[in-house]
What we know:
By secondary structure, the chain is an alpha+beta fold. The protein is built from 2 helices and 3 strands; from the N terminus they run αβββα. It has helices spanning 2-45, 100-116, and strands at 50-55, 68-75, 81-88. The chain is rod-shaped, with a radius of gyration of 20 Å.
Amino acid sequence: MEDDLKAIHRNLEKLQKEADEKEALENRKKVLALIRLITNTVNTMAPGKIEAIRYGSETNPRITDYPVVKITAVVSKTYLEICTWTINSSGQTEPPTLTVADITKTVVEGLEKIRFR
């Protein structure tokens, strides 16, 4: 009886681990899609003028325990930061819900900051 309970417990742990890995993979896919959306929006708003720089474990494999991807839009020549998005891609939580309109709005606000300087 005790052996049966241990076997059931092991199977439950295995199923939970598989479910966690599947959820983490889905979250990672959502994060990568969000990163592409932000980068493409920045490049569409001001082609050749600003670029999106990504930090963290997404771009640096040596940073293994750094779950956050920080995307910063900067003016190419001066590296003046105009807007930043931080995304948790650890798979522990869902990525933030950002729409194209949200991203476009922050890029436009960043461009306005540059114009006023």
